[in-house]
Amino acid sequence: QVQVVESGGGLVQAGGSLRLSCAASGTFLKINTVGWYRQAPGKERELVARKTSGGNTDYVDSVKGRFTISVGNGENTVYLLMNSLKPEDTGVYYCNAAGLTTGDAAFNSWGRGTQVTVSS
Fold first, then answer.
1. Rounded Cα–Cα distance for residues 40 and 33 (Å)
2. Which residues contact 46 (CB under 8 A, 6 or more apart)?
3. Are 14 and 119 in contact (CB under 8 A)?
4. pLDDT tens-place string over residues 27-65
5. E strands, the chain, where?
6. C-beta of residue 20 within 8 angstroms of C-beta of residue 9
7. How big is the CA angle at 36 (ends 90 and 111), to the nearest 5 degrees?
8. What's the pLDDT band for 76 if we cut at 50, 70, 90?
9. Is 63 exposed, middle or buried (0-12, 13-18, 19+ CB in 10 A)?
10. What is the mean pLDDT of the chain?
């Protein structure tokens, strides 16, 4: 079983910055894709940023140039650096990791989320 746990959310003023962290633990062979998603009140969960083991990255248009997804040296931690935050970035941010366990089974794990609130 693979667990992911997010941290780093909080309250910040518009224009400020936050860095979210996501730590993966458990028995896994490889993480193929890591991603950050968010869900604003009354809205569906949406992809914010995603990074593959091959180095490809994707961002939703609304965060391009402001957010950066990166992987830690040990590759068990993924970060989301959020600059120039806007009130519309408010929501619960979830981390997702997908890959293979040591038993060669696929996993797709979600964290419980961390709240980000941007005040105007």
1. 23
2. 37, 38, 39, 60
3. yes
4. 888 889 999 999 999 999 999 999 999 989 999 999 999
5. 2-7, 10-13, 18-26, 28-39, 46-52, 57-59, 67-71, 77-82, 91-101, 106-110, 114-119
6. yes
7. 95
8. confident
9. buried
10. 94
Give the span between the Cα atoms of 33 and 26, in whole angstroms. Answer: 16
Closest CA to 97 of 78, 84, 82, 112: 78
- For residue 22, the Cα-to-chain-centroid distance in whole angstroms is 7
Rounded CA-CA distance 84/118 in Å is: 10
Residue 89 pLDDT:
98
Residue 89 has φ and ψ, to the nearest 5°, of -85, -5
Over 80: is that where the pLDDT of 75 sits? no
Both tokens assigned to 34: 């890591």
